[in-house]
Write a structure and sequence with these properties.
The chain has about 290 residues and is of the alpha/beta class. It has two domains: about 1-170, HUPs (Rossmann fold); about 185-275, Pantoate--beta-alanine Ligase, Chain: A,domain 2 (2-Layer Sandwich). It has helices spanning about 5-15, 35-45, 75-85, 115-120, 120-135, 150-160, 190-210, 220-230; strands at about 1-5, 25-30, 50-55, 90, 140-145, 165-170, 235-245, 260-265, 270-275. It has a six-stranded parallel sheet with strand order 1-4-3-2-5-6, sandwiched between helices. The chain has a three-stranded antiparallel sheet with strand order 7-8-9. Helix 5 (about 120-135) packs across helix 6 (about 150-160) and helix 7 (about 190-210) runs antiparallel to helix 8. The two termini are about 35 Å apart. It binds adenosine monophosphate. Adenosine monophosphate binds near residues 35 and 171.
Length: about 290
């Protein structure tokens, strides 16, 4: 595995390969866990060369968010990437001009709800950095996790709107044995907070099960989830049921692909998770 820290370096390393070998790319902010590794493994099955980036993107953090304390563990990340047969690891010190970007991308649709509503400018920061990374790596395929479903939807939209010749592939959510969705931020949780955090996946599973049992009223499903969170003293930022692709709010589940989304604070840690919820007649296959 080769590690590069500048865009010039990774560009020159990739130059000889372009055109002969397909390239799959997995962008991350590091502190890698089994969720990231599953995306790397997926990338491995889709292309000849696998590139991972580790970059904590300041542009996607709000003023009062955890940029400074975001966990960083590059040596362990490099070992995990080598073990997962990654070919190139890109770890830039920065991707922006010294005084910040002069040009950035702006999301319009898809970012006014869910995490976008609570984190002003977050998805502008995400699409700007992903665009820069795509320009440097120029992958054929990029793999993103369904854990950040809204991000995946927005990246798909960016690639389509900007006519980028890149196939975006989603990877399923990897969970701990007890259901907690893996996240770099889970390490902020104390033991008791971690136990309470389980209410998030329990609430999502309860909505999924109730929908499978025939409940079609979104408000009734959300009430179930709200009660489960409340019993665990977990404060939801949102509990939402939305169309999986347009992210439009759904009142009634019919045959459309639909997902349930929760963001919640457990102590000071903000966690997000989502599941597919299908009525018995729905057919999005999950
Ligand atoms: P991050 O390092 O948090 O920016 O995440 C990098 C990529 O890993 C994103 O595409 C995330 O959606 C994905 N990811 C994070 N957690 C998980 C998980 N538990 N399962 C699958 N993918 C994940």
């Amino acid at each position: 595995m080769r590690i590069s820290t500048t865009s010039a370096e990774i560009r020159s390393q990739l130059k000889a390969l372009r055109g002969h070998r397909s390239i799959a790319f997995v962008p991350t902010m590091g502190c890698l866990h089994a969720g990231h590794i599953s995306l790397i493994e997926k990338a491995r099955t889709l292309a000849d060369i696998v590139i991972v980036s580790v970059y904590v993107n300041p542009l996607q953090f709000g003023a009062n968010e955890d940029l400074d304390t975001y966990p960083r563990s590059f040596d362990a990340d490099a070992r995990a990437c080598a073990d997962a047969n990654v070919d190139f690891l890109f770890h830039p010190a920065t991707l922006y001009p010294e005084h910040g970007p002069n040009i950035s991308l702006k999301t319009t649709k898809l970012s006014d709800c869910l995490c976008g509503a609570a984190r002003a400018g977050h998805f502008d920061g995400v699409v700007t950095v992903v665009n820069i990374l795509f320009n440097i790596v120029q992958p054929d395929i990029a793999v993103f996790g369904e854990k950040d479903w809204q991000q995946l939807a927005i990246i798909r939209c960016m690639v389509s709107d900007l006519h980028m010749p890149i196939e975006i592939v989603g990877g399923g959510i990897v969970r701990e044995a007890d259901g907690l969705a893996m996240s770099s931020r889970n390490r902020y949780l104390s033991d008791s907070e971690r136990t309470r955090a389980l209410a998030i996946s329990r609430a999502l599973t309860a909505m999924q099960q109730a929908a499978r049992d025939g409940e079609t009223d979104a408000e009734a499903l959300k009430t179930r989830a709200r009660n489960i969170l409340q019993n665990a003293a977990v404060q939801p930022e949102y509990i939402d049921i939305r169309h999986a692709i347009t992210l439009k709010e759904e009142q009634q589940l019919k045959h459309q692909p639909t997902r349930a989304f929760i963001a919640a604070r457990v102590g000071k840690t903000r966690l997000i998770d989502n599941v597919a919820i299908n009525t018995p007649l729905s057919c999005d296959g999950q």
